[in-house]
Write a structure and sequence with these properties.
The chain is 47% helix and 12% strand. The chain has 100 residues and is an alpha+beta fold.
Length: 100
């Protein structure tokens, strides 16, 4: 009834076209995934060289601890965005200056 098999939904099928900077967060011992193998494989398959992985440790609770991680530790995500947004702005300014 419209459902997809789990094998058709793995993010690994869609990782290589990702070429934008990527910050991945994953609960290392997530009770619902085969971690750390699944997340690490997906991360390794990303098409970007500008990528970082943050492992949430000492929990199996994706919803309580994983999804709330950046709310508790905002500096990591803010630093990532600050670095990559500045790079994007610099690229845009350079392209504008050359008339491209």
């Amino acid at each position: 009834m419209g459902a997809f098999p789990a094998a058709d939904m793995t993010p690994q099928l869609f990782a290589s076209p990702i070429t934008t900077p990527n910050l991945t967060i994953q609960v290392r011992d997530d009770a619902w995934t085969k971690n750390p193998e699944d997340a690490q494989k997906t991360f390794d398959m990303l098409g970007t060289k500008e990528k970082e992985m943050i492992w949430v440790e000492n929990t199996t609770r994706r919803f309580k601890d994983g999804y709330n991680y950046f709310g508790r530790y905002p500096k990591k995500v803010l630093t990532f965005f600050d670095r990559h947004m500045k790079l994007a702005t610099e690229r845009e300014e350079t392209m504008g200056a050359t008339g491209r």
